[in-house]
Amino acid sequence: QVQLVESGGGLVQAGGSLRLSCAASGRTFNSYSMGWFRQAPGTEREFLASISRRGGSTYYTDAAKGRFTISRDNAKNTVYLQMNSLKPEDTAVYYCAATRAFHSATMTFDYWGQGTQVTVSS
C-alpha cells in the first residue's frame, strides 16, 4: 500500500493561486499513476486531472483545463496541483489518489489521501 498526505490548501481570494502537494510513502512511487479530485458540499466527488507514472502523459477535465496543472517529482515522491485564476466555485476539499493501473481514461483509484480544504472568497 501507499499512504498519501495532501498539503497546501487554505483561504485565497478569487483570482489568486495555490499549489497543492501530495506526498507519498514508500519506494515505489513511480509505479503509480496519480490523480486529483475534489468534493464540494452537497456534490459528488469530481475528477480533475491525472498524470502517468513518469509524468509524460497528463489529462484534464473541462473544470481544470487551462487553469490547473498537474505535475510530479518522483525523486521527491510528490505530486502537485498548481491552481491559478481561482474562483469561488473551486471551493472544495481536494484529494489526491493513486493507482497501479496504466494511465488511461478508465483508471480506478485505489489509494486516497485525507484531503485538504481550499476556500476561495469572492
Topology:
Layout: E1 4-7, E2 10-13, E3 18-24, E4 33-39, E5 46-51, E6 58-60, E7 68-73, E8 78-83, E9 92-99, E10 111-112, E11 116-121
Parallel strand pairs: 2-11
Antiparallel strand pairs: 1-3, 3-8, 4-5, 4-9, 5-6, 7-8, 9-10, 9-11
Provide structural commentary:
- This protein has 122 residues and is mostly beta strands.
- Helix content is 0%, strand content 48%.
- The chain has strands at 4-7, 10-13, 18-24, 33-39, 46-51, 58-60, 68-73, 78-83, 92-99, 111-112, 116-121.
- A hairpin with a 6-residue loop joins strand 5 and strand 6 (58-60).
List the total number of helices: 0
Helices and strands, in N-to-C order? EEEEEEEEEEE
Biggest beta sheet attributes: 7 strands, mixed
What's the count of strands? 11
Distance from first to last alpha carbon? 40 Å
Structure classification: mainly beta
The overall pLDDT average reads 95
Helical percentage? under 10%
Task: Report the portion of residues in β strands.
Answer: over 45%
Low-confidence stretches: none
* Overall shape: globular
The whole-angstrom Rg is 13 Å
Highlighted features:
122 residues, globular
Q: Quick gist of this model?
A:
The protein contains no helices and eleven strands.
